[in-house]
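User: I'm preparing a small set of examples for a lab meeting where we compare how different chains pack in three dimensions. I only have the primary sequence for this one, and I'd like the structure in token form so I can line it up with the others. Please keep the answer compact; I'll paste it straight into my notes.
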Amino acid sequence: MGLMDIFKPHKTSIKTENISLQRCISGINKWNLDKKEDTVFLSASRICTLCCVYNRRIYSVFGNDKRFPKLLDMPSFLLNSKCPCCNMYLGYSIYSSYIKDKKDLKKDIAYSNRPFVDDSDEEMLQFRKEAQEKRIESKLEENEFKWLSENLPEISPKSLSGYRRMKHSNSKNYQNLIKKAKEKGYEIKS
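Assistant: Understood. Below is the structure token output for the 190-residue chain.
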């Protein structure tokens, strides 16, 4: 690269709402004048079946580093702040191959270029199933609390955490709530 190459136009920005990716691109532009290393590390949910496929991989933002997949060739949701499936944040950090030893770098290259499929083991699949059940239970409790707050405000707990404590301890007040809700035509799942 010659002195005049610095003044050649480079594609140094992309339209993204993801603040961590914007900061990485800004850092790449500021500290990496030769524009060869434009790599970022993506951190996403390992529970989500969509996110886990792209999680913990290294991407070349503009395709300058041919050893890694080009971020702009990936699904466009990776440029957003959150996954459309699980609503979890997508976080990026600058990745520098210069500070890695050769053996680790080879592992990173191989891992990042493996097929984009969900290769979760049985333990992760079980963990995912349990996490999904917890999310469903949590949403159900939120809906129950909302209904109780609107329809039985005089006897409902003041907070969602209070309702959850009451429900999990199966207190007398909780039993009374179940009875009063049933009288109004709403069934609370115990």
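A couple of notes for your slides: Confidence is low (pLDDT under 50) at residues 1-10. The first strand starts at residue 39 and ends at 43.

User: Perfect, thanks.
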